[in-house]
Specification:
This protein is an alpha/beta fold. The chain is built from five helices and eleven strands, in the order E-E-H-H-E-H-E-E-E-H-E-H-E-E-E-E. Helix 3 links the parallel strand 3 and strand 4. It binds NADP nicotinamide-adenine-dinucleotide phosphate (NAP). It holds the Pfam family RibD_C.
Amino acid sequence: MSRTRVHNLSISLDGFATGEPQSAEAPFGHAGERLHQWMFATRFWAEGGTAGIDDAFAVRHSDGIGAEIMGANKFGPPGWPDDPDWKGWWGPNPPFHTPTFVLTHHPRPPIEMDGGTTFHFLDATPDEALATAAEAAGGRDVRIGGGATVVRDFVTAGLVDHLHLVQVPIVLGRGVRVWDGLEGLEETYAVEAVSSPSGVTHLTFDKRAS
Ligand SMILES: NC(=O)c1ccc[n+]([C@@H]2O[C@H](COP(=O)([O-])OP(=O)(O)OC[C@H]3O[C@@H](n4cnc5c(N)ncnc54)[C@H](OP(=O)(O)O)[C@@H]3O)[C@@H](O)[C@H]2O)c1
């Protein structure tokens, strides 16, 4: 049975997965790159990086994944739907290597990239998008790649089986928060926390059998 997973979603102590305002120059707004410093230090990200707790969590991002779903604001800065040549932030060989479904109210034809990534653009409910992505994943799992809005929507819809968040010890004060509307989440998920010597805390939420 295909599972739906979130990995490496980095949040501030106050629950923001991005700062503001998002722009082409500052994709994470005033957060800059502070939410992901823990990941940049790992072997998962760069040769010669660390091989400890952070790396052990980070590498799970790709294991057994057959498709990704992401939000329009992860795919590009505000206004990208007006640019017919926009193909995402990641260059010719994006790090997804699977069919990748961009949820947007401005769909366009698919874009085939190098390395196995094809971007598909969907205006669909979370249930419909997941059904489409699961079929494309061919029995493997579907990753919900963010940002905060899309992760929150899929969790709210009861569609996420495994949620891995990385709490970074910074306070952003503003941006887009993951937790809004998710009161009582711990009742439907088994929650574990692992502290890393790097200063971040890995939080995992695994859906309880109903
Ligand atoms: N902290 C992390 O680990 C992490 C991970 C990934 C991304 N990010 C960052 O998070 C930010 C993006 O997050 P976000 O919360 O602003 O936005 P998002 O979740 O990426 O995208 C939300 C947008 O997607 C479109 N959308 C969502 N659901 C839809 C549906 N069912 N049907 C059609 N369109 C739908 C809508 O855009 P339209 O109406 O405009 O089409 C909506 O405004 C970026 O800064 C990104 O870099 C952070």
